[in-house]
């Protein structure tokens, strides 16, 4: 499982944890999030995220 970080605000999406506050179940891969997924903190689109190394 990987983590992805919003380059604009630093929000981290962790595939292992999901995001219960936004009804994304644990184990949901970033690639499986809808194309219109937006950062819950700043509203940036998926294109603003990069894999956290």
What does this structure look like?
GO terms for molecular function: electron transfer activity; iron ion binding. Belongs to the rubredoxin family. Residues 1-52 form the Rubredoxin-like domain. Its cofactor is Fe(3+). It comes from Candidatus Malacoplasma girerdii. It is a single chain. By secondary structure, this protein is an all-beta fold. It has a single domain, classed as Rubrerythrin, domain 2 (Single Sheet). It has no helices and 3 strands. The chain has strands at residues 3-6, 12-14, 49-51. It has a 3-stranded antiparallel β-sheet with strand order 2-1-3, with no helix packed on it. The N and C termini lie close together (12 Å). The model has no long low-confidence stretch (mean pLDDT 96).
List the helices and strands and how they pair.
Blueprint: E1 3-6, E2 12-14, E3 49-51
Antiparallel strand pairs: 1-2, 1-3
Strand content: 15-25%
Strand order of the largest sheet: 2-1-3
Using the alpha-carbon principal axes, give the shape.
Answer: globular
Order of helices and strands: EEE
Gross CATH architecture: Single Sheet
Domain count? 1
Low-pLDDT residue intervals, each spanning 5 or more residues: none
CATH class: Mainly Beta
Radius of gyration: 10 Å
The SS-based structural class is: mainly beta
In whole angstroms, the N-to-C terminal distance is: 12 Å
- Characterize the biggest β-sheet: 3 strands, antiparallel
The portion of residues assigned to helices is: under 10%
Summed over residues and divided by their number, the pLDDT gives a mean of 96
Number of DSSP helical runs: 0
CATH topology: Rubrerythrin, domain 2
Domain Rubredoxin-like: 1-52
InterPro entries: Rubredoxin (IPR024922), Rubredoxin-like_dom (IPR024934), Rubredoxin_dom (IPR024935), Rubredoxin_ET (IPR050526)
GO molecular function: electron transfer activity; iron ion binding
Family: Belongs to the rubredoxin family.
